[in-house]
Amino acid sequence: MDIKITRAKQLKNKPDESNLGFGHYFTDHMFVMDYTVEQGWHNAQIVPYGPIPMDPASMVLHYAQETFEGLKAYRNHDQILIFRPEMNAKRMIASNERLCMAEVSEELFVEAVEAIVDYEKDWVPSAEGTSLYIRPFCFATEAGVGVHPARAYKFIIILSPVGAYYPEGVNPVKIFVEDEYVRAVVGGTGFAKCGGNYAASIAAQVKAEKMGYTQVLWLDGVHRKYVEEVGTMNAMFVIDDEIVTAPLEGSVLPGVTRDSCIQILKDWGYTISERHLDIDDLMEYAKNGRLKEAFGTGTAAVISPIGELSYKGNVQIINDFKTGELTCKLYDELTGIQWGTKADPYGWVKTVK
Amino acid sequence: MDIKITRAKQLKNKPDESNLGFGHYFTDHMFVMDYTVEQGWHNAQIVPYGPIPMDPASMVLHYAQETFEGLKAYRNHDQILIFRPEMNAKRMIASNERLCMAEVSEELFVEAVEAIVDYEKDWVPSAEGTSLYIRPFCFATEAGVGVHPARAYKFIIILSPVGAYYPEGVNPVKIFVEDEYVRAVVGGTGFAKCGGNYAASIAAQVKAEKMGYTQVLWLDGVHRKYVEEVGTMNAMFVIDDEIVTAPLEGSVLPGVTRDSCIQILKDWGYTISERHLDIDDLMEYAKNGRLKEAFGTGTAAVISPIGELSYKGNVQIINDFKTGELTCKLYDELTGIQWGTKADPYGWVKTVK
Ligand SMILES: Cc1ncc(COP(=O)(O)O)c(C=O)c1O
Ligand SMILES: Cc1ncc(COP(=O)(O)O)c(C=O)c1O
């Protein structure tokens, strides 16, 4: 790919690494590429971060033909590492296919990610727990108000230096089991990382926060009883000697962190089952102590222990609201691989030249 | 509301009224208004139609916090009429509430619609069946990649002179009953007019068109058997002497045309039931002749007769693939009211000064 580079006239001051938050700061440049039916993907550029002029009839603003990805670049001294970018590329292909959008090939996607991260490498922070969040996204730019697959798209990558996702650090969070709103249903777009899923999820998030909870645990939309995901993370439950997580049947996002955890846990000899888990059973296991640990997995927070579950007025504390042993071990292993401080037997980490 | 007006330096040539299509042409000006948490809605303007500069981190491009409406202005000689704009205003309030977006009050919404239609009144076409499609829409402009309700929005109205929605005219269409993809589920966003619903629907539409069908008939996402909507229309079925349409339980869009048809049909003495209708029963009624007529209702096509239903390989023709008597009568009544050629006992039509 030929990337045309236009350097920003003035570079920004880098923000204070001890107070980055999540997704508030953006770097000096972004990657942009255009698609038309006639030309395919073309016009790959690195340009100064800044506003994009959009026709008010751009289909993305009306029919939400938009998908995104999220991954991170980690600093290990002078090396910049990225974690399994090809997984994000593949997931975006699946998302775009579901929304009938032009697909960015795995090769183009990874090349673009590496190019912009390399160009902005000074922005990868070095403080403990910090990283450079990479946000590739794709949306329909065709102007028109008929509902149909658009004939023109943009693929953009923006970068944001981030701190730990939860300001509280790796501490257990309180989770509200949502029984009114539904995130996704088989036959819908739950497995795709598309904007509509997130717009639909905000009401539940707001409701949970109002009641003092950090995130919601989603139940399936058909039976309203099988555990699916927790906020923007996949969820894992250690029940006796079995680790249970929801199967990928169309309504759950196939998380890269989820997949990585499953591989590590299997290699450690654990029994991990991708199966339906009834919320009534889960609450019972929490009550009688069979639920040893519970945690969410996702790029933003990596591993996030769950300390409390509240379902229809029934409140259960997990592991005395302490981060469990396995949760800790998994967090250390995965972040160790990601930051390059532990061996990477899986070949997951890519060094950006 | 104080509206600042900036006139376009050069006006466009009006398109040929005999060949408008749907949503291809936009008028010279648009209405734009901004929202921030601090200021509320402010900065109402009529400006030349043209690109909006958008931050690449604008939340609408990532999390699809976006809603829209669709209504029409009709020309009756020198008068410009709009149809029940307060219904669209109310629906947008409900949509924005579901997506935790700032709400545009009914009063502001209607005032803005009237103001821009009045300003662009030369664009309301006069040829038979043509009208000016009005597209109010609202989206999150806050820049940031954390998932939360945005703190800044835009509300815009663009206008497009349109012809008949189906180029074939008021002729029966072939409908494919979709049993793989799901449009909406109770607890989700089906009742809201938000972008995500439409992005999710495109795959089924494409699939149906490939097989030679005009639209899909959606089934409910839980049981996968109750009839919901047809494409971007509500659906009505004349079974014996009963007219059946899906109830508004959260997964179906509450159409303004649907509501208007229900009122007219009731006044005509018909029995109209908002109830679940099993697709297996419907196919059986179509087969044994009890299904007399079927049609979709929506702003774009007004009334669209259904001539064929295909479900899991079972193909049934309705009313010999001819537009039914009641369908015709309803079309004439409603379009008569809309264009001001028939009496309006309901007070639905508003004259734009
Ligand atoms: C809904 C949802 N589930 C799960 C995940 C976890 O996916 P990943 O591990 O690839 O970040 C995410 C993304 O962060 C998400 O948005
Ligand atoms: C999904 C869907 N259902 C039904 C309708 C009909 O609604 P209305 O009669 O208000 O146009 C529409 C909008 O046109 C729609 O998009």
UniProtKB/TrEMBL annotation, chains A, B:
What InterPro entries does the entry give?
Aminotrans_IV, Aminotransferase-like, B_amino_transII, BCAT-like_C, BCAT-like_N, BCAT_family, Rhodanese-like_dom
Pathway where it operates: Amino-acid biosynthesis; L-valine biosynthesis; L-valine from pyruvate: step 4/4; Amino-acid biosynthesis; L-isoleucine biosynthesis; L-isoleucine from 2-oxobutanoate: step 4/4; Amino-acid biosynthesis; L-leucine biosynthesis; L-leucine from 3-methyl-2-oxobutanoate: step 4/4
Catalytic activity reads: L-valine + 2-oxoglutarate = 3-methyl-2-oxobutanoate + L-glutamate; L-isoleucine + 2-oxoglutarate = (S)-3-methyl-2-oxopentanoate + L-glutamate; L-leucine + 2-oxoglutarate = 4-methyl-2-oxopentanoate + L-glutamate
Outline the extent of the Rhodanese domain. 194-235
EC identifiers of the protein: 2.6.1.42
Tell me the enzyme class: transferase
Output the Pfam families linked to this UniProt entry.
Aminotran_4
Show the stretches that span the lipid bilayer. none
User: One MF term from GO for this chain?
Assistant: branched-chain-amino-acid transaminase activity
Any idea which UniProt keywords this protein has? Amino-acid biosynthesis, Aminotransferase, Branched-chain amino acid biosynthesis, Pyridoxal phosphate, Transferase
Q: Where is the signal peptide?
A: none
Q: Which cofactors is this protein said to need? A: pyridoxal 5'-phosphate
Does the entry feature the keyword Amino-acid biosynthesis, yes or no?
yes
Transmembrane recorded as keyword? no
Which PANTHER family does this chain map to? BRANCHED-CHAIN-AMINO-ACID AMINOTRANSFERASE (PTHR11825:SF44), SUBGROUP IIII AMINOTRANSFERASE (PTHR11825)
In which family does this protein belong, per the annotation? Belongs to the class-IV pyridoxal-phosphate-dependent aminotransferase family.
Name of the protein in its database record: branched-chain-amino-acid transaminase
**Species this protein is from:** Breznakia pachnodae
